[in-house]
């Protein structure tokens, strides 16, 4: 498995109830389209050869025999197709009739899975015709001249043992513990559901949530399809609902109530799912007490080239692309930050906070959080001591922004110019101030932190950290300088999310005067401002010109830490996400920078102050990330080098 992607599809064919020949023609046609689309596994609706609503016609030998004949014709017509197709049909076996899913590939039947839970309530009368797969008396059957595995204990696994999938049928999903739960624990990474599922008011949302939740609980792909409008008859109406989920996220979905056939497809990231399962040590706990034996049917499948993925890859994975979702996310994150800080203030018994304000985004967010926490605790905002500390690199723009912002927040303001203190320190350590090297920069950062810490001691306050997750990942902070605080409220907030949070607060929680200042801060380039401004007095040191675009680094960080993705895979995903914005060489260049800095700067993360975890990724050594400071990046860099040759 090169990069872990498998392309899966769900079909909603045209259909005639009882018209096996017509139905098989539609199935054959869609398998051909699926093959051309590069679909590796394609699922059809429940009883798709006969139709689901045949009623007592299921007791007619003519229908049952014709279904087998048409299955044979499908096998013959698709014998050159490498696409695995899952087709629904009734099968009479040992004095019983079973509602089955038949898995076929290249003219061969891989296996047959009978439906486990047979509904018999409301508009469903399936027990009138069908038996549960649990009542099967044998584990192989003869079908279309082939002896094939049969039973509800089948899983399907590729020859390399990398991709495994399971099958359930319609009602199986609706029971308290679906068969797919056990299939997933036994190794199935993708579940396919052949369904009929008629439409009534409210059922669409419920069905969609069932599939979403099951994909999340099983940490699996879930590919679902149900009968289209042609299945509608007598008192029931069908809409043709197909959907593909990956661990709770919807990848694609059909449009219901269309007359024409539909074929949807996307790619499931198997590596991502396996990584999540390994991390979740509770995943296999139920298995210990409910061990089920599964037989694994082997199949061969061609490797999918990840460069051809069609699924959407968000360029800013920390930030929801949907506006309403983004607003909810920002509201929740801001609430987590403020309540966490409020708890720390209550616990310490301190009534003052000390925070350095630069006029940049990070310190702006930190002050917004602090002000809200003080409001929650009914402590006057004047107890917040906001300090601006102009230095050699402070521009007129950021200085003005800082002053106006602090005034708008109604906090106590102090200005302490650090130039003389830094010049004295340069003299003490024998450093030429005309040499603008790392010493020149770090002296300023440490001087600012020393001022904040000493004032906090003097005033009985808590130093609020302003640094963010992206800076910690890259080590873009001065050790024991801005790296240190007494509580780091932004420690789990990536740079790409900081701006959205600040904008959300501006739009939802502030009056016009403060809002205008925040908008100006949002438009200011990101800079540590440790080098003198240019001849025009403007910012001369732009962070992203030095270490690369934060949106790229946040993308790398997310996929490397959240899913353990290798550099090669991250590169492919980034090329898809930023297509047209960055060249391949640019992405490779900054990915190499990210890997080098991430490994070399772990020592800074090993001694971080406390700070609230707000998302799935945290670099706290006490929380999510435990990495030795002396680990080497050789394997990661070697993979990147081999890709550049």
UniProtKB/TrEMBL annotation:
The catalytic activity, as recorded, is: deamido-NAD(+) + L-glutamine + ATP + H2O = L-glutamate + AMP + diphosphate + NAD(+) + H(+)
Q: Which UniProt keywords apply?
A: ATP-binding, Ligase, NAD, Nucleotide-binding
Q: Which InterPro entries match?
A: C-N_Hydrolase, C-N_Hydrolase_sf, Gln-dep_NAD_synthase, NAD+_synth_C, NAD/GMP_synthase, NAD_synthase, Rossmann-like_a/b/a_fold
Which NCBIfam families does the entry mention?
Answer: nadE, PRK02628.1
A single BP term in Gene Ontology = NAD+ biosynthetic process
Entry GO terms, CC: cytoplasm
Where deamido-NAD(+) binds, per the record, is at 442, 471, 476-479, 604
The answer to keyword Nucleotide-binding applying to this record is yes
The record's EC number reads: 6.3.5.1
The residue ranges crossing the membrane are: none
Q: Which SUPFAM superfamilies match?
A: Adenine nucleotide alpha hydrolases-like, Carbon-nitrogen hydrolase
* Protein role: Catalyzes the ATP-dependent amidation of deamido-NAD to form NAD. Uses L-glutamine as a nitrogen source.
Residue positions binding ATP: 356-363, 466
Gene Ontology MF annotations:
ATP binding; glutaminase activity; NAD+ synthase (glutamine-hydrolyzing) activity; NAD+ synthase activity
UniProt cross-references to Pfam families, sorted A to Z? CN_hydrolase, NAD_synthase
Query: This chain belongs to which protein, by name?
Result: Glutamine-dependent NAD(+) synthetase
Q: Record the organism.
A: Acetivibrio thermocellus (strain ATCC 27405 / DSM 1237 / JCM 9322 / NBRC 103400 / NCIMB 10682 / NRRL B-4536 / VPI 7372) (Clostridium thermocellum)
Q: Family assignment?
A: Belongs to the NAD synthetase family.
Residues in the active site?
Answer: 46, 115, 170
Residues the record lists as binding L-glutamine:
121, 197, 203
Q: Residue ranges of the CN hydrolase domain?
A: 6-270
Q: What class of enzyme is it?
A: ligase
Biological or metabolic pathway of the protein: Cofactor biosynthesis; NAD(+) biosynthesis; NAD(+) from deamido-NAD(+) (L-Gln route): step 1/1
